Write the structure tokens for this entry.
Amino acid sequence: MDPNPTSSVTRTRVGMGYDVHQLKEGRPLVLGGVTIEHHRGLDGHSDADVVLHALCDAIFGALGLSDIGQFFPNTDPRWQDAPSTLFLQEAAKQLREQQGTLVNLDITIIAEEPKVNPHVPAMKACISNCLGLHTSQVGIKATTNERIGFIGRGEGIAAMAVVSLEIPHAC
């Protein structure tokens, strides 16, 4: 037991997030804060960036908060076509308010097309810039759904994110 009652210890917290959106003609495709040349984009109230939405939910979850929809409801016209980097900035603000420190994050993007790997360095740069991380703390991988289900048929894109963070906990 620590003899100093005012000292604090750090607790490691983990959060997981998932998001999926349908692809739609006439919309830009934004993944990880990067606009990618493609004939369809993700359908949603904001820019529908599944990568950043999943990441926000992972951060909010690790902090013991609610999901992205509680912070940015799709019924609020302020968020119509909003860039999801704004949502990630809010997640970073919540992290700062709880004096948390992100250790690392890992994201998996599930899409049949377009090829995502050429855009991973730009996504890592965008995410690390928004969160004040080194790019080595940001892992991004892409996979397909092996042509199975709606993602496999090219009807949508999904993303999963896991974050590890440290947060002070008073003794």
